[in-house]
Design brief:
The protein is of the alpha/beta class. 39% of the residues lie in helices and 22% in strands. The protein has helices at residues 14-25, 42-54, 58-76, 82-102, 107-131, 158-173, 200-211, 244-252, 263-269, 324-334, 359-366, 394-401, 428-440, and strands spanning 2-6, 32-36, 136-138, 146-147, 177-181, 184-187, 192-194, 215-220, 241-243, 273-277, 286-289, 301-314, 339-344, 348-353, 371-384, 407-412, 418-424. It binds aspartic acid (ASP).
């Protein structure tokens, strides 16, 4: 069995779904289990509808709902699921009206609304597959993916989920293509929950782990991982193979192709994950495995994170005192503001954050015992590669390549598979170009294309 996950753009229209059907059909021998996202931008639209309803704009909410209804009707017409689509939109309309009356939205009702995207897409995709001559079976993911109660960010209850998956899916997949929605689940009591935005990749990985799939394929709209963030530098190479650790690091530092949590269940069960392009299925994509084969190029990819704020905290009074870091981090923790990168000296701490909503309060509290300077418009450039650990001179090469650029902060994590730098946002493209030239002017053909 393989798990094939298709994202929103891959299923955004009838013709896109047909392309997906073709891709799945070519792999029937491998007994595919298909996980789909909501169609196109449906999740965003659902949340906007709910927000309009809660804000008291009932008319706007219902108009947008009608648009979404027409969109699903249009893309799903002629597949014999018109009534099912209709019933779903009736249920959704009731829910939206309820929100308008209540004037408030709980995390639980937000999940009830956003789950409609995957509920609908999975029904439409199943019908399309059947019409395409592939015997297919729709399974409601909510009956298999069991989660805790943290609505909008629910965590799967693995033991229960794996048991249900193992009981249900392999038997079905023996004779037909199983199709289910990503992102959605339900609590033990059967209340609809979701795994967090972008969670369909996570579903694919959970399903793969639960059924012991031989491979998890994440079909998207890029050729796989690239050697540089394509929004910063065009013309990067495709990374043919990378390790789980590298993939997690790249995802954490902003590579958009993979949800960081995706890799976890797959790592545990040692299942390879392949990233593929549904518009160019002939391209081999990027294969992520526990260990990647050695390559003569010391880094695998350069990831970037934009809109970063650098916070410098200085306190001479803290010289030799213990508890300084604890005091600082306790404040960031209390305001639920994650810290990305960190560098310290005896009297100063520099750190980066990307959520600045509570920065004013955080700053006020820290200023009770230290001086704070904030610089926004910064960016993180992160070079990732297992080889950084073993190949000497990577940092020296990087800094030589960056000799014209002011680097604000440097950090090399204990894992030693990344070297991260903070530069001004205005220097980002130049920095990535320089590093890419240094490390990828002659890429190892075994590892890059
Ligand atoms: N549809 C959900 C979202 O847009 C989940 C996903 O596509 O992965 O966040």
């Amino acid at each position: 069995m393989i798990v094939m996950k298709f994202g929103g753009t891959s299923v955004e229209s009838a013709s896109a779904i047909e392309r997906v059907a073709g891709i799945v059909k070519d792999r029937l021998m491998r007994r595919p289990v298909v996980v789909v996202s909501a169609m196109g931008k449906t999740t965003n639209k659902l949340l906007a509808i709910a927000a309009a309803a809660v804000a008291g704009d009932r008319a706007a909410a219902l108009t947008q709902l009608e648009d979404l209804h027409l969109y699903h009707h249009r893309e799903g017409v002629g597949l014999g699921v018109e009534t099912e689509i209709e019933t779903h939109f009736q249920e959704l309309a009731e829910l939206v009206k309820g929100l308008a009356v209540m004037g408030e939205m709980t995390a639980r009702s937000s999940d009830a609304v956003s789950a409609f995207g995957e509920r609908l897409s999975s029904i439409i995709v199943t019908a399309k597959f059947n019409q395409f001559g592939m015997e297919s079976q729709h399974v409601d993911a909510r009956s298999l993916i069991v989660t805790d109660h943290r609505h909008t960010q629910a965590a799967p209850l693995f033991a229960e989920t794996y048991q249900r998956l193992a009981e249900k899916i392999p038997a079905l997949a023996a004779t037909r293509v199983v199709v289910m929605g990503g992102f959605i689940g339900s609590t033990m009591e059967g209340v609809t929950s979701t795994l967090g935005r972008g969670g369909s990749d996570y579903t694919a990985s959970i399903v793969g782990a639960g059924i012991g799939a031989e491979e998890i394929q994440i079909w998207t709209d890029v050729d796989g991982m690239l050697t540089a963030d394509p929004t910063v530098l065009a013309g990067g190479y495709r990374v043919k193979r990378c390790s789980f650790a590298e993939a997690a690091e790249l995802a954490y530092f902003g590579a958009k192709v993979l949800h960081p949590a995706t890799v976890l269940p797959a790592i545990e069960k040692n299942i390879p994950v392949r990233i593929l392009n549904s518009r160019r299925p002939q391209v081999e994509g990027t294969l992520i495995t526990a260990e990647a084969p050695p390559s003569t190029t010391p880094i695998r990819s350069i990831a970037c994170k934009k809109n970063i704020t650098l916070v410098n905290i200085v306190s001479t009074r803290m010289l030799m005192a213990h508890g300084f870091l604890r005091r600082i981090f306790e404040i960031f923790d209390r305001y639920e503001t994650p810290v990305d990168m960190l560098a310290t000296s005896e009297v100063s701490v520099s750190l980066t954050i990307d959520h600045t909503g509570a920065l004013a309060e955080i700053r006020r509290e820290i200023e009770e015992f230290a001086e704070v300077a904030v610089e926004d418009n910064q960016a993180i450039v992160c070079m990732v590669g297992d080889n950084i650990r073993t190949v000497p001179g990577v940092a020296a090469r990087a800094f030589t390549a960056l000799k014209e650029i002011k680097v604000r902060m440097i950090s090399e994590g204990a894992s030693q598979l990344n070297i991260s730098l903070v530069v001004a946002a205005a220097d980002l493209t130049h920095a990535v170009e320089s590093l890419h030239r240094e490390f990828f002017s002659n890429p190892d053909p075994a590892a890059f294309e």
